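Students often ask why inverse folding is considered easier than folding. One informal answer: many sequences map to the same fold, so there is more than one right answer. In these notes we will look at a single instance of the problem. The structure comes first.
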């Protein structure tokens, strides 16, 4: 393992060195820091040009200036990073990068995680329902989303997802026709996912239709959208549903110990709804992180206490339910900040933002700022999610179909293993191996490719830093962007190799 890490680190360093050197030369050739002075009519034009040449060392060959920049980067290993200065604003590039990187990571991390979870889930279900109406629909949607230009999707979301929805919130009443139409759509989707004979499909369709119609009617009749909340009852029902679902997926419903542990964790979280309202007072990011760890630890403990023939499975299932249950409590508390946020003068009844990563001049508690961040994340995250969702869906479907036709899957079925064990332990894990290549590299690609999305939605992230550097003929911010993206891409490739070894025991990194 040590030899593998050393070889990869050495080769990765060489690749990064060559890449940054070539890009430095290309950017230096493309930009002209003297552009504004060449068109100047100032009487001391030549003196100004000479002063800038001296200040920016433009009389020094580009390879030599690159070595000076590289020396500043090398200082990062001893805690003294020096990535240069943006000469038009006299601002240190490290400070620009620090603020820009945080903004971009917040956007990209959320988009990648959601796209991965949704895309892989839908892709696997599509593979299991091959050649059905659901499968053909998912294939069509995937190709459509993958071919759509992000800037066009962003414009549509601004018009209908923000402006249109904000107008709707002035009177959030759903018509009977819309409720029935959405309920029919929901019933059609669920009967296609569950599949089975005609009777089973009809039951699933009717149940989904009735449940969806009841929820939409309640939302419309009570004005829930203007004062949303979950409450202990909804949290208990949702967490219990998650407990059944995760137990069925990871342990099987016959494993009663795991099921009872998961349900106990879910009900405990719902019972803690009222005490948590006091725990959330004066909340900070660190306190929320601590509460998350506490709920996961409680889930592990409950799973350990219930035990069973496979105590580890009970602990894992219960811990995941604990994590999801705390997520529901957190979302419920954020929802409680909706009404004061919606009525604040800075929002003025239009909460879905079309520009920026935060509302200027907004004052409020921790929960108000969290809600503000979420409302600003909705549109740009959706743009990034749609493209990645299509990618993950196509790859996971193809990978699952290939695995399902392998001999070891047929052998597992022939041995009498349950379909859950065959799909989860034999098929799904091996289907993840090709995806292990896609996910880290896609994250690096999104991190570097969010330039257009950031520009359209006015996010001052790394994309803005990169474009601003090119526009102002500043090479240092551009190279800082290249350095971060190149490092992330190399680290992503390294993670891919390690994931191969984790997912497939036949692969060894020291082979």
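Output (designed amino acids):
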């Amino acid at each position: 393992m040590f030899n593998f890490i050393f070889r990869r680190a050495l080769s990765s360093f060489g690749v990064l060195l060559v890449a940054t050197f070539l890009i430095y030369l290309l950017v230096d050739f493309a930009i002209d820091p003297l552009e504004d002075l060449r068109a100047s009519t100032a009487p001391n034009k030549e003196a100004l040009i000479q002063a800038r040449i001296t200040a920016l060392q433009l009389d020094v060959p580009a390879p030599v200036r690159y070595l000076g920049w590289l020396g500043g980067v090398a200082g990062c290993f001893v805690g003294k990073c020096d990535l240069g200065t943006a000469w038009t604003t006299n601002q240190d590039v490290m400070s620009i990068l620090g603020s820009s990187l945080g903004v971009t990571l917040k956007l990209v991390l959320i988009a990648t995680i959601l796209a991965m979870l949704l895309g892989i889930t839908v892709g696997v279900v599509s593979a299991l329902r091959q050649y059905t109406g659901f499968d053909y629909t998912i294939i069509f949607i995937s190709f459509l989303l993958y071919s759509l230009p992000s800037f066009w999707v962003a414009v549509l979301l601004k018009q209908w997802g923000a402006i249109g929805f904000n107008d709707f919130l002035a009177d959030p009443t759903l018509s009977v026709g819309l409720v029935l139409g959405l309920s029919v759509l929901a019933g059609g989707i669920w009967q296609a996912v569950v599949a089975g004979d005609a009777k089973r499909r009809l039951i699933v369709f009717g149940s989904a239709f009735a449940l969806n119609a009841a929820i939409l009617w309640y939302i419309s009749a009570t004005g829930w959208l203007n004062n949303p909340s979950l409450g202990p009852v909804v949290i208990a029902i949702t967490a219990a549903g998650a407990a059944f679902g995760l137990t069925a997926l990871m342990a099987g419903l016959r494993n009663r110990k795991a099921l009872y542990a998961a349900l106990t964790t879910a009900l405990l979280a719902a019972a803690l709804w009222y005490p948590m309202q006091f725990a959330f007072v004066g909340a900070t990011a660190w306190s929320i992180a601590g509460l998350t760890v506490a709920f996961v630890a409680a889930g592990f403990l409950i799973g350990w206490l219930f035990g069973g023939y496979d105590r580890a499975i009970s602990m894992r299932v219960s811990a995941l339910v604990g994590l999801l249950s705390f997520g529901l409590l957190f979302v419920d508390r954020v929802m409680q900040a909706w009404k004061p946020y919606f009525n604040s003068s800075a929002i003025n009844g239009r909460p879905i933002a079309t520009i920026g990563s935060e509302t200027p001049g907004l004052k409020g508690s921790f929960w108000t700022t969290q809600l503000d961040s979420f409302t600003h994340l909705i549109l740009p995250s959706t743009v990034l999610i749609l493209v990645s969702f299509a990618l993950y869906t196509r790859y996971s479907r193809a990978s699952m179909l290939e695995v399902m036709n392998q001999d070891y899957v047929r052998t597992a079925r022939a041995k009498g293993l349950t379909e859950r064990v065959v799909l989860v332990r034999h098929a799904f894990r091996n289907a993840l191996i090709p995806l292990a290549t896609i996910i880290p590299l896609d994250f690096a690609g999104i991190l570097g490719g969010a330039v257009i999305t950031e520009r359209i939605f006015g996010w001052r992230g790394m994309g803005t830093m990169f474009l601003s550097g090119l526009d102002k003929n500043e090479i240092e911010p551009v190279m800082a962007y290249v350095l971060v993206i190149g490092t992330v891409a190399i680290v992503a490739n390294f993670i891919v190799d390690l994931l191969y070894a984790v997912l497939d025991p036949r692969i060894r990194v020291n082979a």
